[in-house]
Amino acid sequence: MYIFFPGVAGASPDDNLEIHHAYQNEALGRPREPDDGFRLLICRYRPRALKKELETWDKWEKDFGPSKELHADFYGKHGPPIDWKEYRRRYLKEMKNQKERISELARRVADGETITLLCSSACVDAERCHRTLLKKLIEKAF
């Protein structure tokens, strides 16, 4: 499956597992796309300054985001920031506790449901974001 971003060459809207930012800097509520399906916000923290009525997701699952400790370590809040390799290792370890819930998402995708993984606009590189790590875990589970 591709990581689908609207307007990006090579992306496929036919895939059932998509990844998007939950909001963009210029507009705090990314509009729902017709083919988004179930929109799942997977940030540890809910986007600030966004009124509930402007939320563009169906469900928020903060436990699919990095733990508070991992988030803080990645952004250097308690010392030098950890690198991507360490972040990836620790995030995947944390997700072992979510194995059953990841399997449920995989079942839904395998049944043909489209699930769009949403994250904060702070994640500017999809290859270095927990969205992509979670997507790979979901794909691996089916």
Task: From the alpha carbons, calculate the radius of gyration and give it in angstroms.
Answer: 15 Å
Strand tally is 4
Distance between the termini: 12 Å
Report low-confidence residues grouped into runs of 5 or more: 1-14, 21-28
Instruction: Kindly report the average pLDDT value.
Output: 80
The SSE string, one letter per element, is EEEHHHEH
- Helix percent band: 25-40%
The SS-based structural class is alpha/beta
Strand order of the largest sheet: 1-4-2-3
Main sheet: strands, sense, barrel: 4 strands, parallel
Total domains = 1
Strand content: 5-15%
Number of continuous helical runs: 4
Shape label: globular
Polypeptide structure, described:
- The protein has 142 residues and is α/β, with parallel strands linked by helices.
- The protein has one domain.
- It is 30% helix and 11% strand.
- The chain contains four helices and four strands, in the order E-E-E-H-H-H-E-H.
- It has helices spanning 68-74, 84-95, 99-110, 130-141; strands at residues 17-21, 38-41, 59-60, 115-119.
- Helix 3 (99-110) packs across helix 4 (130-141).
- The longest helix has 12 residues, at 84-95.
